[in-house]
Design brief:
Blueprint lengths: L1 H14 L29 E7 L3 H7 L5 H15 L5 E7 L8 E5 L5 H7 L13 H12 L5 E8 L7 H9 L4 E7 L5 H4 L4 E6 L7 H10 L7 H9 L1
Helix pairs in contact: 3-8
This protein binds zinc ion.
Length: 236
Amino acid sequence: MNAAVLPARLARGRLLGTGGLGNNAPAPKLNLVLGHPGTCPAEPTLTICIFDDSGSMLGGADSTGERYTEAGIVFDRISRSCRCDREKAAILHMNRPTSADRAPLALNRRARSDFAGALTVPTDGDGASTMGATLEKALQIARAHPSHRTALLCFSDFELTDTPARLAADLAAFPGDVHAVVMRSEPPQELLNQEAITITRIAAGAAPGAVARALFHTLTIHRPGAAANARNRTSS
Ligand SMILES: [Zn+2]
């Protein structure tokens, strides 16, 4: 069933622009239309984000150069709408641990500055094009939170040194919703073959908002009444 959703998701990835923003719109004033964030879930949730900071990403796959700006806007939006301590998020950068990684923190107002400091290219990152070790860390975090409904979101061009079939299988086996956001490149066939993985492709030159909407979708996937959930139900 998920396989049938893929083409729509891919198309949606390309269509995730916001009207009225010219190419020269200043980044800090991105006017992103994200929809309703919904309400706090009754059960504890955990979203783990993996960011690829390898040379191919910094050199062009993040075609708008604004992925962290957009991610910051989304984290801020959700954290301001959260009234509980049950929604957690963690941020991991590839490949080895960095100062911009964050263990699971409650995604509410108190952690806003913590998340803001994590949504950047780490100054001490190794820039490796390898996801495997970071995925293993995400798995450990998920296993340490067995009572949480978990989602994993990976931002990468998937031009990686990992064995493609192995990486795709490991992603698909992750205990929770898995969303691969493929920036610039065509999604690897090994990824497309895994029905358990939701894929959004963000093409080169995509209008501002594509990264934000992909992140918003996953951060609100367990929030009742969220716009992303409503869209999901009607399209699948
Ligand atoms: Zn909440």
